[in-house]
């Protein structure tokens, strides 16, 4: 059965799961709290690490007979982008590791998600005040819809 919350608003659903599943003990460089997780953009001037989940894109739809040969399974491939902002390389490194850990266990909460892939998480530096250590990537997932 499809996850209604993932289908209705994947950006919000994924943001909530990242915030809920974040283990502060895995990211000591971030301090005592979790990063801000939003569906928006970076809050200028913030010194707190931030993760944003944006730009949902449906990539394709694939249909095929189900294993019993009595109907069709439809797989919808979707993608959202993840952006991470921190104020140190160590924070960025720990946060990327925690995002990877969350993604590895993420699909367990959604019965219809067949595959979940975190790609990219390319790091770079934005000069300014404060200097931002960023990473961005894409989270691609396949949802099964039984017809």
Give a brief rundown of this model:
This protein is α+β, with helices and mostly antiparallel strands and 147 residues long.
Overall description:
With 147 residues, the protein is α+β, with helices and mostly antiparallel strands. It has one domain: STM4215-like. The chain contains 3 helices and 5 strands. It has helices spanning 4-8, 10-21, 89-106, and strands at residues 36-38, 50-65, 72-86, 113-126, 132-146.
Please, what is the oligomeric state? single chain
Query: How far is the first residue's CA from the last residue's CA?
Result: 11 Å
Counting helices, strands and paired strands, the structural category is: alpha+beta
Question: Helix coverage percent of residues?
Answer: 10-25%
Number of helices: 3
**Order of strands in the sheet with the most strands?**
1-2-3-5-4
Largest sheet: 5 strands, mixed
